[in-house]
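Appendix B. Raw example, untouched.
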Amino acid sequence: MKKIAIKVVKFISFFALGAFIFWLIYKDQDIDRIKSVLKNDVNYFWIAISLIIGLLSHVSRTMRWGLMIEPIGHKPRITNTFLAVMVGYLMNMVFPRMGEISRCGVLSRYEKISFTKLVGTVVAERVVDMISLLILLAIVFFSQFGKMLNFINQNPEIQGKLNSAITSPYLIVGVIIVVVLFIIFRRAFKHTIIFKKIIEILKNFKEGFISIRSIKRKGWFYFHSVFIWFLYYLMLYSVFFAFDFTRGLNPIAGLTTFVMASFGMVAPVQGGIGAWHFMAIEALSLYGVANENGIIFAFVSHTSTTGMIIIIGIISMLILPFINRRKDVKKEKESL
């Protein structure tokens, strides 16, 4: 009961944080103007193109995950893998980072694969994604150094928060205490059931993580690792053509907005709500897009993507049992 209460509190806290940021952004806006722009000035053809590109990126992620699972001795069905990925995206809307666990749980259930090994592959996947995002950040930073410096100068609280987090005395003292306790009690701890269970879990993590080295079709793995992020970028840049005030911006402006907004998704709020909007609006302001226009852009882009994920995620949850029940029945008939 206590664990459930803690989860509920976390969910409400994260959602409240995102909702508060969202409210701060939109509280002083002219709602009638926003409605008018949404009704008359948005080219929804480009929004549809953006969603199609987004769907292709999810397919590419599905195929890459399948490549990472093969080295641990399994070749899951592409249908189940895709549906598991989409359920994971949906769960991230409920609770931050819950999606990674959820999709592993779904695939483990329907494909009979070790859950912890699957988590290991997802950990490895996230490392690759973070490296990819950092590479894109470096490209944006060095190509748009002047504009990025201007952004940091206009938002000194960002640099201040990073510095305070790294130099926090609580963090330093906490790390020292953990290290000291480990040194003192390490021998006794090695013989406990908890330690043995942790070692077993870590071994499964390691097996999943080193799956990258064991991937047979490395060329396809590298291709999808690049292709996924290229599609993510195109998904956002396509939305630029839906508005008069962003249509004339060049591709590097789209990349800057994409990278900065992507870091908004890292925030511990459901679906990046609020944080994503703030980062996208600030990025667009670097290229002369007025705040009231950036707000509309962020709203349309984020809402359309979120809506697609919710719809496909719910459909995936509903059809997963049905698809696998039919396949089980088919196997039973073939065995007779």
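End of appendix B.
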